[in-house]
Design goal:
alpha+beta, seven-stranded mixed beta sheet, D-Amino Acid Oxidase, Chain A, domain 2, FAD/NAD(P)-binding domain, single chain, Glutaredoxin, 474 residues, globular
Length: 474
């Protein structure tokens, strides 16, 4: 695809990372025309964000990539500590729980970031979208009707621009939006994807080595032959060359340099925690690392980024296609910025050893109770809560009922009248009981959170109208 004149699209997405691709998939299934541009010639090649939390797995199921994630990933390995070339014992850094009716995923899933992005790009192409690679954004301007972006491949005119272009976001800098935060650790960290001789190290554990020079780990990446190497440095700059990586492994583990048979990718960084002063400027919105930068501890960066996209996609769809006022987009920052701030704090505390990974890291307890779109309470739940899974009888699971770009009005244990409708953006479903919900009516947003809850439909139509949802009770 080439741009040699002004290209028009409804949404321009800058960046083909996890947040940009997830957003593009969500928009495509809604019928929103979007263009994804990426300055690199191909997808990111490394494993960097390898942990997928339970809530993100639910998001991926809804976006239609759950089966691929299950096929290509696997559970996080239990840690094995080493000292003096000998195994010292297992250390499990994750909370693991059996799936329940309300929470179908009980533990993190491991998959290298490059594979996650491959899966999302394949899904985007299934939905009729694609990515324009080797296309860098060099400038932008906006007015009351849209955004004009200058790219190295031409000019694009869009109703909205979403900056998903990473921690060094060109778009954020062009808008002059500050990043507020701190350096979590002044020492550099090396991360690399390597292959280890089969006889030298097993793939059953996440191997942890600690010596005077700092922590070094080797984690087998499910679905690949690779290990992710992470090494902290107390002094000096990492040597990212294959020879340097091999020498590092030989110096700080019992393995020899020749046991590292291949170095496939390497990079370094200094862990930071930073939050954009705002997530929106006119018709430009920030998502993912462009809006928040995490320490990798706790595995929150990729997950928070994907859920930014999940929150924003349905709101753009309602504004662009279903008559919702543009003010609906103001709720994106109002809902997501406090969540991102909380996840940044969690990542930092885990990095510094002040808190262990636990239920908070799984992101199942996150919600928007204090947000502008939360109204009411019924049964066991309050508006803003994550909508739990449960049995839907012959229809499968409640998540099967919710899956798709629509809203769902769920009636549990009540005969209250439901709106007359013919599909579209609202589906209704009755069930006699659900242990996770109790009794009541629950309007489930397209991103799987309860927007409105009540014992009957009083006030529901008034709540739904500003969302572009016209409820007919005739």
């Amino acid at each position: 695809m080439e741009l040699n004149s002004v290209k028009e699209t409804r949404v321009l997405v800058a960046g083909a990372g996890p947040s940009g691709l997830a957003l593009a998939c969500d928009l495509a299934r809604r019928g929103v025309r979007a263009l994804v541009v990426e300055q690199a010639p191909s997808l990111f090649p490394g494993s960097r964000g390898k942990g997928i939390q339970p809530r993100t797995r639910e998001v991926f199921d809804d976006l239609g990539v759950g089966d691929a994630v299950r096929e290509h990933g696997g559970p996080a390995p239990v840690g094995m500590t080493w000292g003096g070339g000998e195994r010292r014992g297992e250390y499990d850094m994750f909370r693991r729980a059996a799936p329940t009716e309300a929470e179908p995923y009980g533990e993190p899933w491991m998959m290298p970031q490059w594979r996650t992005q491959e899966i999302l790009l394949a899904r985007l192409r299934e939905l009729g979208g694609d990515v324009l690679f080797s296309s860098a954004l060099t400038g932008l301007s906006q007015d009351t009707e849209g955004v004009t972006a200058q790219l190295t491949t031409g000019e694009v005119r869009a109703s909205y621009l979403v900056a998903a272009d990473g921690g060094r976001s060109t778009v954020r800098r062009a808008l002059g939006i500050a990043m507020e935060g701190e350096t979590v650790d002044p020492s550099p960290t090396l991360v690399a994807d390597v292959r280890i001789a089969e006889e030298a190290l097993d793939r059953l554990n996440w191997h942890i080595f600690l010596d005077e020079a700092g922590l070094i780990t080797l984690c087998p990446l499910p679905g690949t032959a690779d290990f992710q190497l992470v090494a902290q440095f107390k002094e000096g700059a990492p040597d990212l060359s294959p020879e340097g990586v091999r020498a590092l492994v030989a110096a700080r583990t019992h393995l020899g340099a020749d046991d590292v048979t291949e170095v496939r990718w390497s990079s370094d960084f200094r862990p930071r925690a930073a939050l954009a002063a705002r997530f929106r400027s006119g018709r430009v919105l920030l998502a993912g690392d462009a809006a928040h930068i995490h320490s990798p501890a706790g595995g929150q960066g990729l997950n928070t980024s994907v859920q930014d996209a999940y929150n924003l996609g349905w709101k753009l769809g309602q504004v662009l296609l279903h008559g919702a006022p543009a003010a609906l987009l103001e709720t994106y920052e109002q809902e997501r910025r406090p969540v991102a701030a909380g996840m940044l704090d969690l990542s930092t505390r885990i990095h510094r050893g002040e808190q262990e990974r636990g239920t908070a890291a799984q992101q199942l307890g996150l919600g928007y109770r204090e947000g502008p779109l939360a109204s009411g309470r019924a049964g066991l739940l309050e508006a803003g809560d994550r909508a739990p899974d449960g049995s839907a009888g012959e229809h499968g699971r409640l998540f099967d009922v919710f899956r798709g770009p629509h809203f769902t009005l769920l009636a549990v244990g009540t005969d209250a009248p439901l709106p007359a409708h013919e599909g579209g953006m609202l589906r209704t479903f009755r069930t006699k009981e659900s242990a996770a919900y109790g009794k009541g009516l629950f309007l489930i947003r397209p991103d799987g959170y309860i927007g409105w809850a009540g014992e009957d439909t009083s006030g529901l139509a008034g709540y739904a109208a500003p969302l572009g949802l016209d409820l007919n009770f005739a």
